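Batch 3, record 17
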Amino acid sequence: MTPTPAVELRGITKRFPGVIANHDVDLTVSRGEIHAIVGENGAGKSTLMKILYGMQRPDEGTITVEGDRIDLKSPTDAIEAGIGMVHQHFMLADNLTVLENVILGAETRKGPLLDLAEARRRITELSDTYGFRLDPDRLVEELGVGERQRIEILKVLFRGARILILDEPTAVLVPQEVDELFRNLRGLRDEGVTMLFISHKLDEVLSIADTVTVIRGGTTVTTVDPADVTARDLAELMVGSELPTPETRESTVTDVVQLEVAGLTVRDATGRTAIDDIGFSVRRGEIVGIAGVEGNGQHDLINALLGLVPLDSGRIVLGGVDITHHSTRRRRESGMGYIPQDRHREGLLLPEPLWENAMLGHQRTVPFARGPWIDAKGAKERTETILRSFDVRAPGVGIPAHALSGGNQQKLIVGREMTASPTLLIAAHPTRGIDIGAQAAVWEELRVARAAGLAVLLVSADLEELIGLSDTLHVIYGGRLVAELDPAAVTAPELGSHMTGAGKGAA
Amino acid sequence: MIRRIATHLQRLAHRVWRVSRRAVLALMAPVLALVFSIAMSSVFLLLADASPLEAYSQMWSYGTRSDSLVSMVNRAVPLYMSALAVAVGMKMGLLNIGVEGQYRIAAVAAAAVGSWIVLPAPLHVAVIIITAAVAGMAWITIPTVLKVTRGVHEVISTIMMNFISIGLTAWLLANWLDSRESSSDLLLATDYIPESGRFPNLNWLIELFGVELRAGTNLHGFVVVAALIGVGFYIVIWRTRFGFDLRAAGINRQAALVSGVDSKAMVAKVLLISGALAGLVGISQMLGSFYRYTVDFPAQLGFTGIAVALLGRNHPAGIAIGALLFGFMERSAQILDLEGIPKEIVTIMQGIIVISVVVAYELVRRWREAQAQREVSREMPEATQSTTEGLPA
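Prediction for the assembled complex:
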């Protein structure tokens, strides 16, 4: 007789206005295993996990936990059933201690008072059992990314969870931290904790998971034993076809320097040095990659290049013209294209029609404007061209931007920037959060533009993308460029160790 | 050939259906809000021991008299200007609560200048209008400078400026502009603006339709200027690059910055325009019936303007409807006192309309958003395929 599975989903279907996120999902997770769920963006992984965590209710289907059929109306119900979720984005209060963060919302009490001693005892016990090495009295702001993630896991365990949902837990980690996380997860497994591990990093999935379930087009395609498959097999199961790679072909780098940055220093509002004495150049036909763990000054560098923040010192020369003191508008109009890292925050006017979105950043130039007037006709025609040539799937230029999927929104932004024939393109995480098809399209556009002589500054956290596309690779750490690497010679783990600042010795 | 015509017709029908549905949708929220507020007001009327039916029918028959309709328009014009002043700021996410103070200062300045100078008629009127606009603009300069240089929130600073303006106008009127010759004159007021500075009324237009007006009824001519400003407002906001920058900054400030909009310059321009529009709030009544500034010059128009802007969704056409509705309600309420029904019921009604219209707009907006997505994915399933994967990073 087979033991009762920890989680059993049968025939789960969830519809949203206009889309079916999940249909006929069947999933069986045994007790004490690490069960990976893989699938490309948009395949329905997140929705499925939200259903299991009580954040969404399925339209059809049943959820069985430890043999009991349950109806999850909210995350509270899920926590009660022993299910905990470790979110991809940390939800921690920086100015509180580890202990305070862990008990927040699940305070141990003695009468009306907090029972901190009891909380401390339990936290220490959990931390010791699983080898988390967390000091309950440290302030969270002093801790690194890996430790913060362990706090998130500890929070969930503290609430009594025996089934953990880990939503892309390695997205923010460098390889060394990933290894440590995996050690912790194996420890948890040995203590009988069941884990659902969501990821699209296939090598990691193969190294940690006991079972892998592939989701494609909203439904479970198959469940495999990781010992029987390769990463390539899994990828093809995910996509249902062949896999694209970010490889560029032969070098197209010219001698003409398009962007020259020297001694760039920026302080943030609190006076902290956000970027420190940064200098590099981008030639025409060259893709220069900036690698780094998030929050090491990438965003400040981009803001400085766009002219959004005042410089402390330094010089920016674009196409031979000193633009250090030019306004953002002047920089954009002298050919600085920008693919933002967060398209909703920086790239789109979501409630507005596509043709107005296609104007954004180019709203004073032909064909979008004529004199002081908006040229709606010209703008709509140009938008149609963009939709056609960049394969943006949209039924018309008049529909609001929020009606499109992430991949199509991103293709619209890429198309808008490319069509304006920029002289320098700043691409920040250009393929983040979009599906593989759109990802391949964006990479292809970057390659074509590079071959046509465009200078590209690529800021990314995706090591494969950086190594595959870049001609030159810089590592940013703590606001400084700490290494210049040859993408042809560097491996992902080497790049990763530079990104942690462990740098020079390791490479 | 026939098939081509058929598909054409089909497309046309589809389009007509879409446009008419959009119109119905746009009107749905305010109509629902109006119905709801009438229902709620009925409850209050019943609580006050009055018959709602009686009250509404009195209001309707009194409010639709020709002189009442003229009064409705006269009351609507200042509200319209006030709401435009608020709306231009709201389009960019700025809330000018200081319209109240700006129009009072502007009215005093206009009365002072208008009664002091003498010019040929059209020029005299123009100088008064420009004075009012400039004075309104000048009064918002302080909050503007504070906002741009020190980041002081405009809501706080414009509220503060309201208090200062109330004190300042009273002081100016009492100490510098008082035209009373003996202390037995009770009404504190400036000198009259001479005939050449008054805006001719539009009674001839009504009489053209054969309607006899009661004596003393007087359709303010400034309504024409207000309508033109409304058209200008639409053109600037929705048809120019400047308007695009402004709306972009209102919808997504960060995206606008990245696109090259100079946030500070834009904030300054928009606040100054708002102040200038606010300056014109009192002008219709001043040049149409008061001809001077008095201590009992209409007050609260700035605050009511915020409600009207909300009601009209910051669109000049919507604001016109909202202003006329408020004008109608205020005028028709005058009859209630004679019937022994507290006319304050209308203030309650206005409040309920505004609150429920805000709720109704939000509900309709969400519904339409889902509707748009459904429509897109019906026409082209691959356009929305991955919308469920949560927000992109």
